Structures are given as structure tokens and as C-alpha cells.
Task: structure prediction
Amino acid sequence: AQSVAQPEDQVNVAEGNPLTVKCTYSVSGNPYLFWYVQYPNRGLQFLLKYITGDNLVKGSYGFEAEFNKSQTSFHLKKPSALVSDSALYFCAVRDMRTGGFKTIFGAGTRLFVKA
Amino acid sequence: GAVVSQHPSWVICKSGTSVKIECRSLDFQATTMFWYRQFPKQSLMLMATSNEGSKATYEQGVEKDKFLINHASLTLSTLTVTSAHPEDSSFYICSAREGKLAGVRVEQFFGPGTRLTVL
Result:
């Protein structure tokens, strides 16, 4: 079954420091992976996606993610965190078995960036 | 980018009443819309997928008679929570995608969500 795991409920980072939010996946076939961010009482905003090609994917707001097939991971990274990056982050995988219509989300990781 | 709106943004209702939530794609035609619910500090749970002009496909465990979904036009889908109970209180988020093609080329856009509180 397709699944996504985000092992950390919360990540705390000081402003200016690099941040990493972890994600591992389990899929049959080629993985189509996504990262979304959610601010309080708001919907999800798309950050980036991996379909194929370069393992390092660059996205919005200075975020990037590295696809690692051997470790089945797709960790979200940013070289220098901002207080405004504090939010809830979701890793997701597109279930291609259903024709790509379903997106399966991880449990989410709350990021706190301290000034 | 494409914009998806939801109305209302929050609603409080009495137990036993019905509540309708609207989801609109403002600048594109959404042939497929999704409805999710999110409990506090939890992930999004897909409730149903609806294609314009046809019946919605509900996920296992979701009562279709309780959560009525109508996708009557290419820009509007509605979710009606019938005979609401306090356990239906949740954050409901809709999502829309343009085009009929499956796959990752067709992006999925999310609405801002509707917070439902049933007293």
C-alpha cells in the first residue's frame, strides 16, 4: 500500500539555521512526491514536487527537497530558516494506481522557528 | 496560480441541523474536486472524490448519506453535512484539479478550509 511517514511531530530550529523536515515513503512503482505547507486555519499551499530527473528539487520560498531512492526518503530542507516558516508541513505521495487521482498525506510536522 | 475558495470559512450549528459548504474554482474549470477533513493536529483524510456531472466516489468508512457531495458545474462543488453531530466538528478542506487527465501534470489546488463546530 502507498504510504507516507513523517517521523517527527515537531521540529524546532533557530532563525538563520538550516532546517530539515523528514519524510519517508512506501510506494509500488515510481514515486510522485510532494511537499505542502499549511498555516493556521488555512488550506494547503504547494511547495514542490518530485516526478523524475534531478534528485534535488527546488521549490517555493527557498525550500528544496532531496529524493533518495535507496533510503526511500524525500526530506524537505532550507539553508536558512525564517520565523515566518513556522507552520505545519505535509509530505504527500500521489497514488498512481488509481490513475493519479488520490493524494495520500503524511501526518504532518509542525515547524517552529525561534527568533 | 489557480485559486480555490470555500464558503463559509467557519460555521457553528446546532446538533441535528444540516450545513452546506461551498467550494469554488475561481479561475479555472475543475473537472475533479476532492473533499478532505482534518482533525486537530492530524493529517488530511480524503473523504470523497467528485467529477463534474457524476456521482462522488466515497472513501471507505465515509457515510455518503451523511456527507452529500454535489459537483453540478465545473466551478462549484458542495458538501452538505446532514443531521450534524458534535463528532462531525472538524476542518473541512476542498481541493480542485483542472482537466480530466490523471497524473502529476495536473496540479491540485486547495481551498482555505471551513471550520465546522457542531454544538
Q: What stands out?
A: The radius of gyration of chain A is 14 Å. Residues 28 and 97 of chain A are 9 Å apart (CA to CA).
